[in-house]
Amino acid sequence: IEGSDSSNGYSSESAAFQNRLKYLRNFGISAHIDSGKTTLTERVLFYTGRIKSIHEVKGKDGVGAKMDFMELEREKGITIQSAATHTKWNNFGFNLIDTPGHVDFTIEVERALKVLDGAVMVLCGVSGVQSQSITVDRQMKRYDVPRLTFINKLDRRGANPWRIIEQIRTKLRNNCAATQIPIGLEDDHEGVVDLITREAIYFEGAHGHILRTAECPPELVDQMESKRIELIEKLADVDDYIGDKYLEEARISEKDLYEAIRKTTIARTFTPVLLGSALKNKGVQPLLDGVCAYLPSPTEAQNYAIKPAADGIGEEKLLVKTDDREPTIALAFKLEDKKFGQLTYVRVYQGSISKGDVLLNTRNDKKIKIPRLVRTNAEDMEDLKKAGAGEICALFGVDCASGDTFTNPNQASKLSMESLHVPEPVIS
Ligand code: GDP
């Protein structure tokens, strides 16, 4: 209950914080090279207002905007993709985390995957599942990352989302189904029909930022109904509630479908597939809605810290509590050298970090003081007083290595977010 004392013992500030966390998504975008990850990232930042000025400055239409962004990066010194970029959409906050997905297992990839709660896997609507898509898929499975799939480039000649969905099923062995059907393909790709609401969504205006909804075009009604049944059948395989209703031939409401998709996505037994063309500004906003609706909030993700076992031999896992009243546990997942010195990207798993805090680096038992705490955006940095459990921030002037864990200095046992037996962390 926002802003009020509640019976579970949260102070009003804490209750408001926990409520805010429900509207936070820490997610990454992963893809085979050339599938459109950069373009999609740019569009996400554009639609969420982070780099709105670009088109106004350049006065061009959305097509070919990639070059504009690059020019703007150079001119204004903005970063389209840093280790973590904070942005907002509707009532939601996002931390878009860079996942170097096409690289096979390295400690850096491992850390990036660890700090995100969900991901969008981008596939090209023509090339489909490629070698790096298989790598990305394997990584997501290994780290239990819930995900959505975005089939991109539906404007390209030869694009066929249904063939790609078959590949997701056969090559990746993922239980998946489209939650949309395309309205037109190739040059005629205009929008999508949402299978949950049965609404047609058209993307209009130079940047596809005007969403016009209408009834499903008559020629697509049969396809919509059959693909809607396919979606329900795939959900019925993994969700008892939908399964029972389907068998009883009972009415399945929009709410039932949203809830089942959300539940099974978080349980990683189902992958919703969304459609569009990032370059042509189609389908990006519904994808953001999908991230909000289906991917988990930090409070729904389960994370474990590692501590030495009670008998002194080996180590044991400790479930972290996404609660800012608990002792602090935070992981430094990426270091960046900036003009002004080192910036350390941190995910706070438990407790909080405030400006001026003294924390303990559990790798070398050194105390560190936090002089400045920020959130990085595409264009600037926002100073923070505090970052709580579930949040991602960047620290200035902290001497540490990637992979280090920070706790409160008085914490009883030695904790780490990574195995205590890892040799010296790589300093990047
Ligand atoms: P990344 O390597 O995955 O980051 O892919 P990029 O975003 O750099 O895109 C690779 C190429 O595909 C670029 O030339 C983009 O302009 C193009 N591209 C990206 N999205 C689309 C799309 O939706 N349709 C078409 N036709 N081209 C696209």
From TrEMBL:
Principal location: mitochondrion
UniProt keyword list: Elongation factor, GTP-binding, Mitochondrion, Nucleotide-binding, Protein biosynthesis
Chain ranges of the Tr-type G domain: 22-299
Pathway participation: Protein biosynthesis; polypeptide chain elongation
One GO MF term attached to the UniProt entry: GTPase activity
Residue positions binding GTP: 31-38, 98-102, 152-155
GO cellular component, one term: mitochondrion
Gene Ontology biological-process entries: mitochondrial translational elongation
Compartment annotation: Mitochondrion
Leader sequence segment: none
Known role: Mitochondrial GTPase that catalyzes the GTP-dependent ribosomal translocation step during translation elongation. During this step, the ribosome changes from the pre-translocational (PRE) to the post-translocational (POST) state as the newly formed A-site-bound peptidyl-tRNA and P-site-bound deacylated tRNA move to the P and E sites, respectively. Catalyzes the coordinated movement of the two tRNA molecules, the mRNA and conformational changes in the ribosome.
Family: Belongs to the GTP-binding elongation factor family. EF-G/EF-2 subfamily.
Annotated protein name in UniProt: Elongation factor G, mitochondrial
From-to range in the entire protein, with total length: 25 to 452 of 743
